[in-house]
Amino acid sequence: MPTTHATAHAKAGMIARLNHPDYDRWASQIRGTGGCRQPIHLRGKVEHYDAATGQLLHRYTTRTEPDGILRVPCKTRRASRCPACAETYRSDTYHLIRAGLIGGKGVPETVTTHPTLFVTLTAPSFGTVHARKDKNGKALPCHARRNAETCPHGRVMACTERHHADDPRLGEPLCPNCYDYTGSVLFNALAPLLWKRFADSLRRHLAKLGGLALKDLRHHLTLSFAKVAEYQRRGVVHFHAIIRLDGPGGPTAEPPTWATAAVLAGAVQHAAHVVSALVPAIDDQPARLFKWGAQLDIRPITLDGDLTEQAVAGYIAKYATKAAECVGTLDRRINPLDNLDAYNLRDHPRRLITECMRLGTIEGLADLRLTQWAHMLGFRGHFSTRSRRYSTTLGALRAAREDHARDQEITTGRLPLFAEDTVLVISEWTYTGKGHSAGDQLLDAALTGSHPGRRT
Question: Nearest-CA neighbor of 276 among 257, 291, 264, 258?
Fold first, then answer.
């Protein structure tokens, strides 16, 4: 009965919007957001004045807009929150990454001759988990063992099932009581530090191989990179990184002749194996030393073959819009007083979140902010990062898009043409909310082809 009432209410709201005199302008706003699931509502104005005379040249105000507000995209990167805005972020990331591989957008095409590797740094094991294995396209048993051991909790550490790709048990431990949940969330929390130490060690080793002091390396060589974090189904992050060697100043300069792809690969192997991060003994927790996992993948990027620049750019851009949702956790911050049972979580993500909350109460671990990042299973780093000289920036790509939109406004007469350097711009904006009403959701889906989703 409540569902029927909600549906009737949504239809009534949709009909009211369709029959409203300002429907066309409302529809124009919706199309302008590109199908954003949770558009931001702004109220205010922007005025353009002649800087010399003080004459008002143009004024825009939301008073004449539908509902007295302007709807703009939320611009989130997370596909789980807004697929439309995440797709824009994914596309921008793709072009940013690809420009650093083949040139364009301010990067010379000669960058294709620079030594470039695709590196995957993984997490160590924290216990045996269900996994999908295949050979020649045929699924294999998960953990088929003839003389499998029985763990201290009475579970046989074997699994003969051939898991399908969507099996929710993938990544979950064979014995949850044996699994090192403490280590898992602490590794996530320290992963950004491990990456920083990896990059620092990589530079030090490259300087040593080149017979240089570390302080002089920048005069001969620039280490450029772009990386993205990906959650494995078991709930730990690993990093995919494009690592490139440039000359001094970035991609416009050739690296020295000794800085080859083989030299870079050797330096990556060295750095990945030597760096570590220590969590000292605190309260009832023993000291823990974390290192990258044993699986280290280093592959050259080519213009043809299996690992092309298009494949790498697409791979990194895809994961730049994702978070920990593949593990089954929540896509929002969790209050320590929340009842996790009410969220219908599977046992594995619930245990990971609970462990974050427990460790977050330990004073000596306060700097890791595990309570605030429990929904991310302890990881608080940026998902997609790059060095300053890798290629262009997301800001530059957005500015180009804004310039194009402004030119469209001028062409259609919605904005007058005037010299920007002689104009004083005064704007006043107030945030008034976000999202759609139930009826507007239905119309938004029809106008943009997006799924109505949940009410926000």
Answer: 291
Q: pTM for the complete prediction? A: 0.88
Q: Taking a C-beta distance cutoff of 8 angstroms, is the pair 191, 229 a contact?
A: yes
pLDDT of the chain along its 456 residues, tens only? 446 778 888 889 899 999 999 999 999 999 889 889 899 999 999 998 988 888 898 899 999 999 999 999 999 999 988 999 999 999 999 999 999 999 999 999 999 999 999 999 999 999 999 999 888 888 899 998 888 899 999 999 999 999 998 899 999 999 999 999 999 999 999 999 999 999 999 999 999 999 999 999 999 999 999 999 999 999 999 999 999 999 998 999 999 999 999 999 999 999 999 999 999 888 777 899 999 999 999 999 987 777 899 999 999 999 999 988 889 898 889 998 888 888 899 999 999 999 999 999 998 999 999 999 999 999 998 889 999 999 999 889 988 888 887 777 778 766 677 766 678 889 999 999 999 988 888 888 888 876 554 433
- Domain positions in the chain are 2-73+397-448, 83-126+180-392, 129-171
Cβ count within 10 A of residue 165: 8
Closest residue by Cα to residue 67 from 42, 32, 47: 42
Over the chain, what HEC string results? CHHHHHHHHHHHHHHHHHCCCCHHHHHHHHHHCCCCCCCEEEEEEEEEEECCCCCEEEEEEHHHCHHHCEEECCCCCCCCCCHHHHHHHHHHHHHHHHHHHHCECCECHHHHHCCEEEEEECCCCCCCECCCEEECCEEECCECCCCCCECCCCCECCECCCCCCCCCCCCCECCCCCCCHHHHHHHHHHHHHHHHHHHHHHHHHHHHHCCCCHHHHHHCCEEEEEEEEEECCCCCEEEEEEEEEEECCECCCCCCCCCCHHHHHHHHHHHHHHCCEEECCECCECCEEECCCCCEEEEECECCCCCEHHHHHHHHHHHCCCCCHHHCCCCCCCCCCCCHHHHCCCHHHHHHHHHHHHHHCCHHHHHHCCCCCHHHCCCCCCCEEECCCCCCCHHHHHHHHHHHHHHHHHHCCCCCCCCHHHEEEEEEEEEEEECCCHHHHHHHHHHHCCCCCCCC
